[in-house]
Structures are given as structure tokens and as C-alpha cells.
Write a structure and sequence with these properties.
Layout (H helix, E strand, L loop, with lengths): L15 H10 L8 H14 L4 E5 L2 H11 L7 E5 L8 H5 L3 E5 L10 H13 L6 E3 L10 H10 L5 E3 L7 E2 L2 E2 L6 E5 L12 E5 L2 H11 L22 H11 L2 H18 L15 E2 L5 E4 L6 H10 L5 E2 L15 E2 L3 H8 E4 L7 H17 L1
Parallel strand pairs: 2-3, 2-4, 3-13, 5-8
Antiparallel strand pairs: 1-9, 6-7, 6-10, 8-9, 11-14, 12-14
Helix pairs in contact: 1-8, 2-8, 3-7
The structure holds pyridoxal-5'-phosphate (PLP).
Length: 375
Amino acid sequence: MKPKIWLSSPHMSGAEQTYIKEAFDSNWVAPLGPNVNGFESDLQSYLNEDRHVGALASGTSALHLSLIILGVSAGDEVICQSKTFSASANPIVYQGATPIFVDSERDTWNMCPEQLEIAIKDRIAKGKKPKAIIPVHLYGMPYKVDEINKIAKAYNIPIVEDSAESLGSHYKGQNCGTFGDLSILSFNGNKIITTSGGGAIVTRTSEQKEKAIFLATQARDNAPHYLHSHIGYNYRMSNIVAGIGRGQMTILDSHVSKRRSNHEFYINAFKHIDKITFLPEPEGYFSNRWLSCIQLDSYPTREGLRLALDKENIESRPLWKPMHQQPIFKDSPSYLNGVSDELFENGLCLPSGSNLSDIELDRVVSAINTYFASC
Ligand SMILES: *Cc1c(COP(=O)(O)O)cnc(C)c1O
């Protein structure tokens, strides 16, 4: 069996161990300490000095705290992009609120502004104004920020920007992760940088950050004994994990370059197969190309190709299955135009890691060429 080629695997710089060793040497083995503060300030300098960053246990916990800070509670409705990972939507349900799913458009594969406005008008007509909107920069491609912002502003609904897949992407020169009223990042094992598991909330005010950290550390009131007037969570990032994050920040930009060059490589390699198409970068959009995705025609099928790659020990994966198609969300109201269903049906994510070698990339290409030649 040839060695496994992964979709997206962790890629260390080497500097991580220095920060971890420092944490051990100084005995900061706790969910606070110099690496946590350092990682937060590294992220803040990278994104925008006018933002505040709180390091947390995961991107999911950052989404959950964002909804709490915006006052989302039982019986509320929250609009969420349907084409995404379930972690974008689950925290809505943690709060006892109802997710309202909105379909994608074809230019970025993200939340469709027209469907968004239809959804908002219809929810208001049915008696409830949505409490928040969660758009996602899928696979690193920024969503239509201006169009979505304009609608959110017109109806005065806050945005929780899910930037879990888009650290290093930007739109009209502004970094993804700074567009929301609140924004979130993820450092899970397969993301563009990883801390093994981790995430962050990005806020516009220091009060919001303090509130997030307060809730993330069991909501302890200011007293010598344990005193609580709020429900808290154990969502803070560990100082060991934050050390990995500090090391990863030193190579973030080179990871972005490598992922973008993987994407270019695939475009060139499949120029001769007109049944394989890619998502172009619209003017003003810069994607970190976290995952390189292709779209196929109805034949040969996406699933046929996936199985052919699997036989060669190459991992690939269908694009996110939309939330409105998930059994757990089958009763949630959805505003659909067919785009995300079609993308799921025909779309495949190819190996995209920043640590892929030329030999591995060539193996992927020849496996795909062989499959197309056999169809
Ligand atoms: C990974 C991911 C999350 C969740 O982040 P975790 O750190 O794994 O909790 C949320 N949304 C999207 C779009 C993601 O890809």
C-alpha cells in the first residue's frame, strides 16, 4: 500500500516546542499564562490592532459565547449559512434557539444575499426578527461581505462571522475575522494553522472580550470565595496549547502561500479535463485556499472519483453537506435556491495541506487522470 495522502494535516514550524518548553520550565501548565496572552496579541497584530482576541478551547465554543454575548436565548431565531460544517449551527441549538438556514450563491459558494433578505422579511412577517446572522467564509473564500453587511445593517441584525476556515484570507484588503460584530477562528487539527484543538473569539470592544473570558472561565464573580451570578463555561485555551499557536503564527503566511500554490497546481494539471472546474477568485477577494475544491459534471460522478482516490490511499471529501439536508435539522426553516445541493452533489475537496510534497501532488494528479481515462 502506498503511504496515505491526507486531505489536510497538521504542519508544525519547529518553533512550537520552544514555547511549550517555556511553559513547562515556568510551570504555566494551566488555562492561562504567557503563551495565552502572547498568542492573543500575535493574532491581534495579524488581524487588526483595533480588535480584541480571546483564545478559547475551540471555534465552536467561540460561536457559542458570541451568541450568548448577543443575548440569543430560548425561542429566538438565528440565521445561518446552510452550506457549512455543523459547528456553525449547533451553538444556536445550545441556546435553545432555532436555526434558519439560508442557501449559497455561485460566486463564492457562501450565503446568498438575495435569499438572506427573503428569509429576514419572511421571519419578520411570521412574527420574529432574527437575533443574529452567521455567514461563513467557506474553504477560505470570503463571503459577499458588502452585500451581507448592507442587509444586516438595514434590518439592524448583528453578524457573527464564522472565520474558522479563513485565517489569512482577505476581502478588499481587510482581513477575514474582522468583519463581524463578533468573529470566530478555529485552530483544529485540519485548519490552516492548528493548536491540536483550539479557537478564538474576535471582538470590537475590550468589554466584549472581558465578557467572553468571564463566561469561558466559569463566570466567577469578584470575591475571595467562589461566587456566581451567571452560568459559566470551561472554554478557555490552555497555556500549553497556546504555545503551539505561537509557533504556528510564525509560518501562517507561508502556509497560505503553499495552499494557494496547491490550488494553482491543480488548475494547471486539470486544464485538459473540461469536466473539472474550480471556483475562481472574484476581483477584490483573496482566499487562503484552505481546501482545494473541484466541481465535476454529473458523469463521471464525484463519488466515483472519491472511491478511485481512496483505492490509491488518497483522502478526499465531498463538499460540506448542507445543514438543511442533515437529519438533525430537517425541521428547521430553510430558504433555498438549489445551489448548495448542487455543489454538494458534484463537489470534491482534494488533498490541500501545506506539507504536501511534489511527489504526493503528482500522485493525486495521476490517480485523477487514470480515473478520467477509464470512464
Ligand atoms: C472547524 C469549523 C468550526 C468549528 O471549529 P472547532 O475549533 O473545530 O470547534 C466552525 N465552523 C466552521 C466553518 C469550521 O470549519
